[in-house]
Amino acid sequence: MPRLREKLGLPGNKLIGERWRARRAEPHPAPLFVFGNQKSGTTAVAGLLAAATGLSATLDFAGAAEPHIGRLYRGETSMADFVRANAWAFSNALVKEPSLTFVAPRVMDHFGVARAVFVIREPADNIRSILDRLKLRGDLDALDPARIDANLTWRRQLAGLDLGFPEDHYVATLARRWRAAAEVYRGAAERFVPMRYHEFRADRAGAVAALAARLGLPVTADIGAVLDRDFQRRGTPRDAREFFGAKNLARIVNTCGEVAAELGFEIPG
Question: pLDDT for 122-154, tens place per residue?
Answer without folding.
Answer: 999 999 999 999 999 999 999 988 889 999 999
